[in-house]
């Protein structure tokens, strides 16, 4: 998901409606590649405009949030303050459908004469920049200086002329004619979607796919397969989109799947009909909400990296131990053979001659003759004793390994459940509970200071500051559904929160959340059963599958095994259903 030319056009329209005629009252540079301008509008309202040239997150939008600035302002910020404090915004424009926003600014110089300057924001991924130019578009400075060693295409340095780098064989979709469209886009030996975004400036893969969808075409179909009528229809579809852009007809929206943003755009995305659509009153509010959510997810992923590594290493160790134990168990399969050998030698040993290497006897278990190897240096009874000793040794090994394998399997299941909980963690309280669980089971070492358990003190402090809470949904029929985000929550939901008549759901033989539906003494409608099963399927480690088998039963049938790890339960009476993992349309309570 990236800012394309259509979203930039929407931004420019919004900024024109809001900021034209306003004056810049404050300039700050909170980050090395970011500016925050405070602007007083003509109606005396105050706006904050964020401009970011970050390689990973180039942005421009209106915001109400402030950011702390460094004690000493960077040189670029000082230069802007010198020239642009009090500057009036004369024009805000976008060249063609480029990912560029031009601010034409008017200010008074030291002599009191009116001067014109340009602040140009280029939102082009790793090539993003904020460039300050004079009235002749000569660069005064930029937030990122680019010399010939960094780029052979264009230097961005004080004294150089500013120009937009030529995009090879790309055409402006705002002015392209059908003849040019036909001879360029439709003649490229590429899939239709790729031909569109490779040929037209500002058209992203998303918009290219949307154009194909609106024209009832497959974006993966080659251009050579298009008939002349289909090609003309595609051009007319593009023409209608361009008319909406020129008329300022925008529809800021985010399409999501299971609550996770998939794409955002400034036009209706008919290619995502089955997805959730969240609309916004402005493109700025969309970008702020989207990137705030994205940053939150990224921050949690970053903070959970150490825990993920601990869990991953523990799973690898347990898996290797499990494989070794299974191999050792397989070696004990011959124990019963040794027992039979000992019994048969005891029964028929009197027939065995001294120094014999083999005893042929009738196996009374299957009435077949069997050849039993013997040690010729030992008597028959000594051979029998040796075989019984081998049997007993392997039997002890078998019994021990059977217990150990079950313990290792339980450990793997426990670790997989923690791994799944890390995947669905949404805040630092969730991570704190997971760290506590890992510490209790010895995967994370406790820290000691002067003999005191520092970690436990920290944990109790965090508990008082905030506690992780289960996810809360409401079914289409109005029933409350709760989803545990970790093993502690699963236990709490199932054995403390739920009543015997409530319903319990869990993905079958898969790490996942306990889902509790509060029945309130009534019989649940089928639709609520289906929605609760979808939640159990989605919040499991099998969420990427199309369908997951889900077990469900009344809570009174769920038992906690003696000594069971958090989240472990047993049940012997249950129903099952095959559920999709899509939770679109299920209402979540914040």
Automatic annotation (TrEMBL):
Key words, A-Z: Coiled coil, Protein biosynthesis, RNA-binding, rRNA-binding, tRNA-binding
Gene assigned in the entry: rqcH
Pfam family, one: NFACT_N
Listed GO CC annotations: RQC complex
PANTHER family recorded: NUCLEAR EXPORT MEDIATOR FACTOR NEMF, RIBOSOME QUALITY CONTROL COMPLEX SUBUNIT NEMF
NFACT RNA-binding domain: residues covered: 470-563
Gene Ontology MF: a single term: tRNA binding
Family recorded in the similarity comment: Belongs to the NEMF family.
Complex formation: Associates with stalled 50S ribosomal subunits. Binds to RqcP.
Keyword Protein biosynthesis carried by entry: yes
A Gene Ontology BP annotation from the UniProt entry: rescue of stalled ribosome
Role played: Key component of the ribosome quality control system (RQC), a ribosome-associated complex that mediates the extraction of incompletely synthesized nascent chains from stalled ribosomes and their subsequent degradation. RqcH recruits Ala-charged tRNA, and with RqcP directs the elongation of stalled nascent chains on 50S ribosomal subunits, leading to non-templated C-terminal alanine extensions (Ala tail). The Ala tail promotes nascent chain degradation. May add between 1 and at least 8 Ala residues. Binds to stalled 50S ribosomal subunits.
Protein name, per record: Rqc2 homolog RqcH
Residue ranges that the Swiss-Prot or TrEMBL entry lists as coiled coil: 391-435
């Amino acid at each position: 998901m990236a800012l394309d030319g259509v979203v930039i056009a929407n931004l420019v329209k919004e900024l024109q409606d809001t900021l034209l005629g306003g004056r810049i009252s404050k300039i700050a540079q909170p980050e090395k590649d970011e500016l925050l301008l405070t602007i007083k509008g003509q109606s005396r309202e105050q706006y904050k405009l964020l401009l970011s040239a970050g390689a990973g997150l180039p942005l421009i939008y209106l915001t109400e949030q402030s950011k702390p600035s460094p004690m000493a302002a960077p040189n670029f910020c000082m230069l802007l303050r010198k020239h642009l404090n009090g500057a009036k915004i004369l024009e805000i424009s976008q060249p063609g459908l480029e990912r560029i926003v031009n601010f034409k600014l008017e200010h008074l110089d030291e002599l009191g004469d009116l001067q014109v300057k340009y602040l140009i924001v280029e939102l082009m991924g790793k090539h993003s920049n904020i460039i300050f130019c004079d009235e002749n578009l000569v660069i005064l400075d930029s937030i990122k200086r680019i010399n010939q060693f960094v780029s052979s295409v264009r230097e961005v340095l004080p004294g150089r002329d500013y120009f937009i780098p030529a995009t090879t064989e790309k055409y402006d979709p705002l002015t392209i004619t059908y003849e040019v469209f036909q001879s360029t886009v439709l003649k490229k030996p590429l899939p239709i979607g790729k031909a569109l975004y490779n040929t037209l400036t500002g058209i992203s893969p998303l918009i290219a796919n949307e154009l194909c969808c609106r024209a009832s075409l497959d974006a993966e179909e080659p251009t050579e397969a298009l008939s002349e009528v289909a090609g003309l229809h595609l051009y007319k579809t593009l023409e209608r989109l361009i008319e909406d852009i020129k008329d300022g007809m925008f529809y800021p929206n985010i399409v999501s799947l299971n609550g996770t943003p998939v794409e955002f755009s400034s036009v209706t995305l008919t290619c995502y009909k089955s997805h959730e659509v969240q609309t916004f009153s402005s493109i700025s509010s969309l970008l702020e909400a989207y990137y705030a959510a994205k940053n939150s997810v990224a921050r949690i992923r970053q903070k959970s990296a150490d825990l993920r590594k601990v869990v991953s290493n523990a799973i690898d160790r347990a898996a290797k131990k499990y494989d070794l134990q299974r191999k050792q168990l397989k070696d004990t399969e011959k124990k019963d053979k040794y027992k039979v050998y000992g019994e048969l030698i005891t029964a028929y040993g009197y027939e065995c001659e001294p120094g014999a290497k083999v005893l042929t006897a009738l196996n009374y278990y299957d009435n077949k003759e069997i050849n039993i190897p013997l040690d010729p240096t030992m008597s028959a009874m000594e051979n029998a004793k040796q075989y019984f000793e081998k049997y007993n040794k392997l039997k002890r090994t078998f019994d021990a390994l059977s217990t150990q394998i079950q313990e290792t399997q339980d450990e793997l299941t426990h670790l997989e459940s923690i791994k799944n909980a890390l995947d669905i963690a949404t805040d630092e309280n969730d991570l704190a509970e997971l760290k506590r669980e890992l510490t209790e089971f010895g995967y994370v070492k406790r820290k000691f200071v002067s003999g005191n358990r520092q970690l436990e003190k920290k944990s109790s402090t965090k508990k008082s500051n905030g506690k992780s809470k289960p996810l809360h949904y409401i079914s289409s029929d109005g029933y409350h559904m709760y989803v545990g985000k970790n093993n502690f929550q699963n236990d709490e939901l199932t054995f403390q929160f739920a009543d015997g008549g409530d319903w319990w759901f869990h993905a079958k033989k898969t790490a996942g959340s306990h889902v509790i539906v509060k029945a309130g003494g009534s019989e649940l409608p089928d639709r609520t059963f289906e929605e609760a099963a979808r939640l159990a399927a989605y919040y499991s480690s099998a969420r990427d599958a199309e369908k997951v088998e889900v077990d469900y039963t009344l809570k009174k049938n769920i038992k906690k095994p003696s000594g069971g790890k958090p989240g472990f339960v047993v049940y012997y009476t249950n129903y099952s259903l095959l559920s999709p993992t899509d939770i679109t349309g299920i209402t979540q309570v914040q």
